[in-house]
Design a protein that fits this description.
elongated; about 55% helix; 10 strands; two-stranded antiparallel sheet; about 350 residues; 4-stranded antiparallel sheet
Amino acid sequence: MPGVVKSGGDPQVWSGYNTAQLNQDSDDMDASYKDSGSYDEKTIHTMSKINGSYEELSNQGIYVNGASESFPISDTVRPTAIKDINEQKPLEIQHITFGYLPFSALITRLVQDTFNSLDDMVNSMADLPMPLINGVGGSNLSQTNIQKKMKMLGFCQERRAQLIKVLVLSQWSRQAESISKVIDMRVWLDGQRRLYDDACLWMGELKRILGPVKVPDTDLLSALEPLSLGKASWLPDLGYIPEESSPQQLLDIFRTLNTQLAIRLNLYERLPVLFRDYSIKDGRATFRIPEEFEVDLSIADEDRSSQFFFIDLRFLFSPTSSLLLEGWLRDQIEGRINHILCHEGLEGCSQFLH
């Protein structure tokens, strides 16, 4: 169903076309028709825009999305934006010029190097001694002449190899334009391949980052019963939450602990000298060192080999403050004493506290 849109803004402007532009386009179309007897594609496209604009004017600022009924748009009439996109040329491939040297510079440097090498060779040949036989210079078969000829032959061979290389480069340079295009294409393809690789890496990284962000759908059916009744019939009771104990049960537990502590300390434990003064009450054994401290320990298992656990520590000297054994310091002392009780027993605990 087409939508209805009400035009607003300047009353002299409709859909991006003003009245002056409409009049100018009408005159251009009349001139085109007089010259050729028919309208070209550009003129037909202009007529479609004018037709739509006048239709909006006749509808008092209200028009319907879609093609105009008075002038049906054929396949040959396309919007200007789409036509411009289709006719737009692709971007040119970047031309690579880095590292290129002119061929003339190579020739100039080769000539200069040849001249310098020839000058060095002539000077080295002049330094060779010429042997004299009966006051006359040596023959062509003398050792000095042979060395000079070998130097000149070696120089010519070396220069010939260099000039052959330059000849090959000169023949290759006639096709340098085509080779340069191949190089540009190769660099462009490598760049496109890197873009594809970067896109794959980016998508994988995005998937990894968005993993923790995913929120599962709310299970309303499973949450309805626990939220309304406070329990769920389909959940098993594993007994992790113990039932609330009565005062009589708590009293029985304390009496059992007192009995087990008394049996263990009197029959199985080898008490250190500092821990000979102790008392058992409320499920804990209190070891007292006069004018120093008293520490409360207890057990959590009936097994006589199980360790003692730290309960409380109080200083007996003065002046002192109960705030010393609160917060972070108490947590550190509790953890350290439990560790010592596990590995060294009561002997290690007494040495650590004393």
